[in-house]
Amino acid sequence: MLTRNIDIQNGLVNGAFGILLRVVYSENDQHIIKLGLKMDNETSGKNNRTPADDMVYIERAEENLKQKGVVRRQFPVKLAFACTIHKVQGMTTTSAVVSLKSIFEPGMAYVAVSRVTSLSGLYLLDMEEKKIFTNPEITAALENMRQANLDDMMPLLHVRQTLSRSDVFTIVHHNTEGLPAHINDIKSHHELCLADVLCLTETHLRGSFVAESLHLENYNLFKRNRHLSYTNFPQMANRSGGGVAVYVKSDIQVHEKQYIHNVTDLEFLALKVEAPVSALIAVVYRPPDYILRPFLKNLCKQTNHGAV
Q: In this structure, what DSSP letter does residue 148 have?
């Protein structure tokens, strides 16, 4: 079994199994320099295998120990004719022999027997029904949960009548954590696409150019990037991320209040809606490292000046 993550993308991870088929020695001093493994999982180490023998070769790993100046060099493998249930959490295999003899925690038996892809590949040893048990707190919590009435739940693609009424003006706010990365999620969301005004924070947009893929059909886009939002905090203005944006349906009369007196050091966007309703919409984002007290002080100062 491998005992450390060597190449996560290729499945050579801590807990991966293989058979030792070859030991490679140095030509000079006959020290062992590599171990050749045939991995149990056909996809593990696929990009690391040698074409000649279809094996994965593991080299020594070096690790600094707590003792000053002490370095340990060893191959990150160990014998594993069997392994603990905790070690195989997350593993998937076609067959396994599971011993329930030493079960001592709730849920351990479930973790063990659920590693296989079919019942035909599961072999049980030391079978005792009392070893298969759950945490009593979980059972109590489930019993106390209110039963959901499926008749009262909104189906995933159901359009609520209140969102399609002409006398309802719908404003939605959402933290995107990166608009380019999640624009397709927004376009396909069954409720976000019903908003008259969609306010977004943490857009992570940079520069003045907006890619065509970031435009929503039948919406106009207004945005303010982070680097334009700070005057007295240049360290925040130069950081990536942040930014706000607002999508407004094309049939809504709106204009952006681009220059508001005394408004500095806030990531914000202010829009004046003229029709079909009259409203002033302000979207404000506070970065996690913007200390709350000065942020609120600055926000209140701008509000008192009539900015919002």
A: P
218 shares its domain with 107: no
Together in a domain, 175 and 266: yes
Confidence of residue 259 (pLDDT cuts 50, 70, 90): low
Long-range contacts formed by 128-134: CB under 8 A, 24+ apart: 128/100, 131/100, 131/101, 131/103, 132/100, 132/103, 133/106, 133/109, 134/106, 134/107, 134/110
Handedness of CA 259, 262, 268, 272 (dihedral sign): negative
With a pLDDT cut of 70, the percent of the chain lying above it is: 90
User: 90 and 63, same structural domain?
Assistant: no
Q: How far apart are CA 259 and CA 154, in angstroms?
A: 42
Q: Which residues form the domain of 195?
A: 161-304
pLDDT at 110: 92
Domain count, the chain: 3
Instruction: Please give the pLDDT value at position 229.
Output: 78
Report if residue 97 sits inside a domain: yes
Query: Is 79 within a domain?
Result: no
Confidence grade of residue 91 (pLDDT, cut at 50, 70, 90):
confident
What's this model's pTM, rounded to 2 decimal places?
A: 0.49
Query: Does the CA dihedral 83-84-86-91 come out positive or negative?
Result: positive
The answer to whether 207 touches 226, Cβ cutoff 8 Å, is no
155 lies in some domain: no
Do 179 and 295 lie in one domain? The reply is: yes
Same domain (yes/no): 169, 300? yes
List pLDDT tens digits, range 177-221. Answer: 888 888 988 888 877 888 899 999 999 888 788 888 889 989 999
- Sequence letter at residue 258: Q
